[in-house]
Amino acid sequence: MHFKTSKFTFYTALFTAAALVVLFILLPLLRLITLPSWALLLKALSDKNTIVSIANSLIYSFLTAIIALFLGVPLAFLMAKGLFGRFEKLIETVIDLPLAVPHTVAGIALLFVIGRRGVIGAFFYNHFGIKFTGTGAAIITAMLFVSMPYLVDSARDGFKDVSAEFEKASFILGASEFATFWNIFIPLSKKHIESGFLLTWARAISEFGAVVILAYYPITAPVEIYDAFTQYNLSVSISVAAVLLLICLTIFLLLRMVINRDARP
Amino acid sequence: MHFKTSKFTFYTALFTAAALVVLFILLPLLRLITLPSWALLLKALSDKNTIVSIANSLIYSFLTAIIALFLGVPLAFLMAKGLFGRFEKLIETVIDLPLAVPHTVAGIALLFVIGRRGVIGAFFYNHFGIKFTGTGAAIITAMLFVSMPYLVDSARDGFKDVSAEFEKASFILGASEFATFWNIFIPLSKKHIESGFLLTWARAISEFGAVVILAYYPITAPVEIYDAFTQYNLSVSISVAAVLLLICLTIFLLLRMVINRDARP
Amino acid sequence: MRVLELQSVSVTRGSFSLKEINFFVNKGEILTVLGENGSGKTTLLNTIAGFIKPDSGSILINGRDIVHLPPSERGVGYVFQTLALFPHMNVAANILYGTRFHKISNVKDRLGKISSLLRISHIMDRYINTLSGGEKQKVALARTLILQPEVLLMDEPTAALSPREKSRIIDELKTVFKRLSQTVVFVTHNVSEAYRIGGRIGVMENGRILQIGNSDEIVYHPVSHSVASIFGEVNKFKVRVESCNSGMCSAELGNGMVFFLGDFKVCEKILLFIRPEDILLKTVSTKTSARNNFSGIVKDISFAGPLVRVVVESGQTFIVLISKQSFEELAIKKRKPVFLSFKLTAVHAVKLTE
Amino acid sequence: MRVLELQSVSVTRGSFSLKEINFFVNKGEILTVLGENGSGKTTLLNTIAGFIKPDSGSILINGRDIVHLPPSERGVGYVFQTLALFPHMNVAANILYGTRFHKISNVKDRLGKISSLLRISHIMDRYINTLSGGEKQKVALARTLILQPEVLLMDEPTAALSPREKSRIIDELKTVFKRLSQTVVFVTHNVSEAYRIGGRIGVMENGRILQIGNSDEIVYHPVSHSVASIFGEVNKFKVRVESCNSGMCSAELGNGMVFFLGDFKVCEKILLFIRPEDILLKTVSTKTSARNNFSGIVKDISFAGPLVRVVVESGQTFIVLISKQSFEELAIKKRKPVFLSFKLTAVHAVKLTE
Question: What is the pTM of this model?
Answer without folding.
Answer: 0.78
